[in-house]
Write a structure and sequence with these properties.
90% helix, 145 residues
Length: 145
């Protein structure tokens, strides 16, 4: 008789849920990395704007107002991007938490399956040993005839 895990469907569904959670986390991490990349580029633009301000102070004071407005705009965009990065990081953390919960669920079902399988085979061995013992007893009675 072969072992059949009664919760096989639940295990399969838990594994599918785990796969989905991994895919969703990967998507959110890609979004986070893209936002961080944009933030880095924006920081470079801000640094260049500040450099332009310094240059304008020395060489072209008449353009200083434009550089200040440009630098302020770049700073504002950088702050907004940093807020988006923080928000996305929280989203990624939530998806990581969900992934961990899914992993725990799958491991729980797999441990239960392994335990039930061990118990099944132990019972099979007991039954087999009982049958062998009965055969030995039966043969022991038949021989004296």
């Amino acid at each position: 008789m072969a072992f059949k895990f009664r919760l096989e469907t639940s295990l399969r569904l838990a594994k599918q849920e785990l796969d989905m959670a991994q895919n969703l986390l990967a998507q959110q991490i890609r979004i986070l990395l893209e936002l961080r990349n944009q933030s880095s580029k924006q920081a470079l633009l801000l640094e260049r704007a500040w450099q332009g301000q310094r240059t304008a102070c020395r060489e072209a004071p008449s353009s200083l107002g434009l550089w200040q407005k440009y630098a302020e705009q770049q700073k504002k965009e950088l702050l907004e991007l940093n807020k988006k990065v923080e928000k996305q990081q929280k989203i990624v953390d939530e998806y990581r938490k969900e992934l961990l919960e899914c992993r725990i669920k799958v491991e729980k079902y797999e441990r239960l399956k392994a335990k039930q399988k061990r118990l099944f085979y132990i019972e099979e061995l007991r039954t087999e040993q009982k049958q062998l013992d009965e055969i030995a007893q039966t043969k022991g009675r038949i021989l004296p005839i």
